[in-house]
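Exercise 4. Each item below gives a protein and its sequence. For each, produce the structure-token representation.

Item: Guanidinium exporter (Rhizobium daejeonense).
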Amino acid sequence: MAWIILVAAGVLEVVWAYFMKQSAGFTRLVPTAITAVAMGASILLLSFSMRTLPLGTAYTIWTGIGAVGAFLVGIIMLGEQASAMRILAAVLIVAGLVLMKVSTDS
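Answer:
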């Protein structure tokens, strides 16, 4: 169950990153509110997952999901560049996440 909660926390990290971008420096009310709620929920779920998962594993997976997820959202929804080097970087992050998962007993 901790892994499911951790993935949900990572997805919420992507949500708040996207809406932070949409908030235009916290000048737009609705995206700012969504950012704040998603941030709080993401951190809360991360803390729940850390009840059973090691700190290093949980935090690495959480930030990795956020980083790769935000990268994909940027390309798909915001038209950001998808160069070979950026894609390779994302693949390497995912490889690190997989290694972190398989090296954890929980």
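Check: Residues 2-102 form one domain.
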